[in-house]
Amino acid sequence: MKIQVVGVVGAGVMGIGVAQNLAQTSHQVILVDISEEILDKAKKEIKNNIRFQGFFNKNEKAENPDNILHRIKFSTNYKFLESAEFVIENATEKWDIKKEIYAQLDAICPPETVFAANTSAISITRIGSATKRADKIIGMHFMNPVPMKPMVEMIRGYHTSDETISTAKELLAQMGKEGILVNDSPGFVSNRVLMLTINEAIFLIQDQVASVSEVDRIFKTCFGHKMGPLETADLIGLDTILFSIEVLYESFNDSKYRPCPLLKKMVDAGLYGRKSGQGFYTYNRAI
Ligand code: NAD
């Protein structure tokens, strides 16, 4: 049975992509963030992204962007999420923020509603502990940009039920995606490896071993990667990289996850990457 109404919490880089993808696959979306200003920016960004996508897929019959946008309700009020059959949470990668959000969702949404955490590193079992429905909590680690990435890393928390996994797989299929299911561990598979790689690449810059473009070119031309680690860092957002590596550091108590001081400095300076217009590279259009 088709899931009709999906709540999306957080209207940043990932929430925007998830909401757009859902609306384009005919779901009704309730997109919640903490300020009208952020939501207005998200609305503009989604509209631009739909137009941009239409420009590249000229052969496909494109739906009017306004019709797609009409399926998204933008609000700062969590109360509207009471009608959501499924919620995908994409808020800032900070445990204190997420803990509060899950307590609110748990109080507002019907007991059968599944909550999917689109987190980079926080344990899904830990997120489950912030609710009274740990069996209905699952990790759905979407890739960026969401509408263009067909694969999602799915994470089974300690209490996640088989029913929750099949509901989440069903929603992914409706969104035109597939999932690879892994067991819970901070950072899962992707970010236990990727965050260390990016952090080490930043140490290379700090130690002046090579320039930004040289580091990225080695990964692209020698290994055949589509993007180098520093371009990837700018795409993800340096603030999100820092928060994620801090989660890994705290979760494993292992010094191999200590964040590079240059990463901290760049975040303190507001150099977040693509979303701020400046990171390791400069971008014409800040998101
Ligand atoms: P972001 O900083 O771009 O956006 C986070 C959004 O959450 C902001 O708009 C913020 O206002 C909002 N927020 C904060 N507190 C909130 C609250 N109480 N209620 C509702 N909204 C709230 O971050 P992002 O890159 O979109 O990341 C969001 C989540 O997705 C993080 O957990 C991150 O680790 C994960 N993630 C990021 C990427 C990526 O490439 N950026 C990929 C996969 C997963």
UniProtKB/TrEMBL annotation:
Family: Belongs to the 3-hydroxyacyl-CoA dehydrogenase family.
Recorded metabolic or biological pathway in which this protein acts: Lipid metabolism; butanoate metabolism
Identification of the protein by name: 3-hydroxybutyryl-CoA dehydrogenase
Organism: Brasilonema bromeliae SPC951
Domain annotation 3-hydroxyacyl-CoA dehydrogenase C-terminal: ranges: 187-283
InterPro entries xrefs: 3-OHacyl-CoA_DH (IPR022694), 3-OHacyl-CoA_DH_NAD-bd (IPR006176), 3HC_DH_C (IPR006108), 6-PGluconate_DH-like_C_sf (IPR008927), 6PGD_dom2 (IPR013328), NAD(P)-bd_dom_sf (IPR036291)
Keyword set includes Oxidoreductase: yes
Pfam families per the UniProt record, alphabetical: 3HCDH, 3HCDH_N
Domain 3-hydroxyacyl-CoA dehydrogenase NAD binding: 6-184
Keywords, ordered alphabetically: Oxidoreductase
Keyword Cell membrane: no
